Amino acid sequence: MAKGDDALARKRNRVRRKRMRSSENAVSARVAAIIANKRRRKSGKRRGCEGMCFSLPTPDDPFNERHGKKRKGEESADDTEDAADLAKDGNPKKKDANTKKQPPAKAGAKAKSKAIRERAAETEEDRVDFDRPSKFLVVCLNAIRDAMTAEDGGGGSIHGAGDWGVELWRSCSAPAPSDVLDTSGSCSTMEQTAWLVSTACDIVARKERLGMVVSCPFLLYLVPSQEKAAQVRSICKPLKPLGIHSVSLHPGASVEHQISGLKTCEPEFLIATPERLLELVSLKAIDISSVSMLVIDGLKCFLDLNVSEKIFSIREAISGNPHITIFTDPSDKNIATIAKNLLRGKITKLSINDSVSSRSAFVTQHVHFCPSEELKTSKVKEILEQILRSHAKKSSKVLLVAASNKKAQLLSSSLKLENCTVTDDSQGNSFTICSSVGLMNVLVKDRENLAMSDVEEFEIVLVVDLPPSVDEYVEILTGVARRTIGGEVHSIFSNTDAPIAKPLAELLANCSQVVPEFLKKL
């Protein structure tokens, strides 16, 4: 049987290698390299850059002594571009055809272990589009969805929480991020956790692309129980192939086992119960001082378990100002006080469900009775004086909502007393009330020209003329104080508002607010 061309070529190569290894035909390594280079050139299998380019002197190597080669500790610019492509494509396993294969110990190394690269180019944060999620965020969400679908078929609803997730991603990823307070329920859902950890992955990838060193752990996720820790860990597990390693710390495992595990890895995400975490921190098994994101999942559960002081201890152990996300049930009034002590900066309130009680959490509603329309102006002055006394030694912003532009102008002119100074406003509907007890900035708007962006910036809103439908009142109520924890909505109820008395009373009862006696009688 005739031999093929491949078999003949292998035979010729064996003979050639045997001839080269013989003592009489042995050559030096330099000559062997020249011969091998000549053979590659004749066969057309040389490297793409061989013989086609030359290196130029650089400020680091002015005499070109290194011939364009980098030192061992330096990193090529191509590696920087590859890391950027990985952050975009979300596939860290994909390598170029000419990339040298790394040993197993180095193949899983993160970009955080590389030297800090100085880049004089424009940073990516100036070019981030905050109107839509990044590609890597979608890759992380799809990885979690596929894993959850394979387990129990429940991963298909992750993208259903897209509106909530995009708002969360925008709040966390903005150049000036704001803390997040979610009042949807006692703890986060699977969809909310998936969006949260994917957002953290996206932030890590962007920081690594910019050459920044990412601290470990980057995300600290506090849970009230071992069962919740296992649930969050299962959601984070599909992110491991993308370069994000997570560790769960809870009383279900021994301290010695967890200490030995922490010595062998540096997790980006740390899921822990407060008791076990503080125990490991006291033993110096882990350092949480450089945590960048802190998640408190179930603040009311922690309060019921009497571990709220441990939450504050963990917060004090973190240096700097980490981004904080809190999931809680707003039914307990003490939650607002604890949340104010934890969230010290600008916040964004979110809710994944459409219930009015969740969307208007921590907003107090007051309904005042006025028998006639003629007495509303004096009633408004009385309410403003009450607000001034209740917010003594504090500058307050109050929005007055009137039925029409004409009523808004009349109300604005009638409220300008001797102790009021008009600010720079072309229409004259914005003024300041100066008093010995405090300062109040008042803005008068009509319902026709009222935008929700105007309502969100105010902690106190006074609805002078109730709308004919409770739905319009709900729209104002759910838009108040979106950037702060607490808020107030005052409304004046007159005899002409009798048709909405019953639905208004039901709304107050559903939101756990005090229902006035005059509404019950109507």
UniProtKB/TrEMBL annotation:
<feature type="domain" description="DEAD/DEAH-box helicase">
    <location>
        <begin position="217"/>
        <end position="319"/>
    </location>
</feature>
<dbReference type="GO" id="GO:0005524">
    <property type="term" value="F:ATP binding"/>
</dbReference>
<keyword id="KW-0347">Helicase</keyword>
<feature type="compositionally biased region" description="Basic residues">
    <location>
        <begin position="10"/>
        <end position="20"/>
    </location>
</feature>
<keyword id="KW-0378">Hydrolase</keyword>
<feature type="region of interest" description="Disordered">
    <location>
        <begin position="1"/>
        <end position="127"/>
    </location>
</feature>
<dbReference type="InterPro" id="IPR027417">
    <property type="entry name" value="P-loop_NTPase"/>
</dbReference>
<keyword id="KW-0547">Nucleotide-binding</keyword>
<keyword id="KW-0067">ATP-binding</keyword>
<feature type="compositionally biased region" description="Basic residues">
    <location>
        <begin position="37"/>
        <end position="46"/>
    </location>
</feature>
<protein>
    <recommendedName>
        <fullName>DEAD/DEAH-box helicase domain-containing protein</fullName>
    </recommendedName>
</protein>
<dbReference type="Pfam" id="PF00270">
    <property type="entry name" value="DEAD"/>
</dbReference>
<feature type="compositionally biased region" description="Basic and acidic residues">
    <location>
        <begin position="85"/>
        <end position="99"/>
    </location>
</feature>
<dbReference type="GO" id="GO:0016787">
    <property type="term" value="F:hydrolase activity"/>
</dbReference>
<dbReference type="GO" id="GO:0003676">
    <property type="term" value="F:nucleic acid binding"/>
</dbReference>
<dbReference type="GO" id="GO:0004386">
    <property type="term" value="F:helicase activity"/>
</dbReference>
<dbReference type="InterPro" id="IPR011545">
    <property type="entry name" value="DEAD/DEAH_box_helicase_dom"/>
</dbReference>
